[in-house]
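Forwarding the complex inputs:
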Amino acid sequence: MPVLIEDYLNAIGHKLDFDRSLAARACEDIEEYCHDVAAEMNVHPHEAEELAIKGFGNADLVACLYATSALGHEVRKTWLSLAFVVVGAFLAMRLRTLSLGPLQTGDGDVLLLIDRFSLAAGLCFALMGWLRSRTSDFSLRLFSARTAFDLSLVAIATSIIAGTMRVAAELGSSIASGHASIVIITVGVEFALLFAVHARVRKLGCYFDRASAAV
Amino acid sequence: MLKGHLDNILLAALRAGPAHGYGLIEDLRRRSEGHFDLPEGTVYPALHRLELARLIESSWSHSPEGRRRRMYALTRKGVTALDERQSDWSRFSKAVSLCLDDAEPCPS
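Prediction (whole assembly, two chains):
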């Protein structure tokens, strides 16, 4: 590949490195356009590259426009992922309760409140983020949706940690009653979901960063 | 002003049949008699956005020289959305035209 277009595509790929498929799509589109210009306008490939680069604009702008084009889709995916983790955490909690029975009172009561309240808050913040992203004011949308998704993640993490602390105290008795595997598996699944959704929220943050540069 | 209508214009251009990105840009330029000289940097991301919204779909085809090309086509959802948007636009443009054409000076 000639150096001129290669540098340009590398720059775009670097700016969209948080999503390889988006970076690949942008590069494919530009390469295709470049070939089309060369074929349809019957110009030298080098001239076609210059026309393509001129037509698409600087790499920053192209990256911004592609990130903006996919932002709505990513927001929807993130909201659904957060909702899925909330449902998963709730089911894990119910499964533990069914296996172990009601946990002892004491500090568990406070943790129970934190666990339940945070989980509900996580779902509300995620919903708020999704709704905020649909408002017409773009600058407001960028700020509020992102903050809501971050808060949702924090709330869900708080719930899962509180739930884990509650069952940790019961782990000794659950081993004795043969339910340790349920505790370990459900807690493991909750944390796996949490790490996965954390990666998704971080990726969405990169989308917001890149897209906000286009506003 | 065109920015808010870019999606509609692209959907409308695809009503005639599947097309590739370069062809769409050229077609719009020709049909608008040069008024819509759309920058490529806005058209391709817009096509990607429409595809993510499932209003259009893309598939690979081959150019006469044997080169791979991405072809875009309207989906059923896209046809429905286009019909609605055209209807909205007709009402809106008719109302604006009425206001502009029949505008009379305010009575003093």
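Chain B touches chain A at residues 20-22, 26, 39-42, 44-46, 48-49, 52-53, 63, 65, 67-70 (CB under 8 Å).
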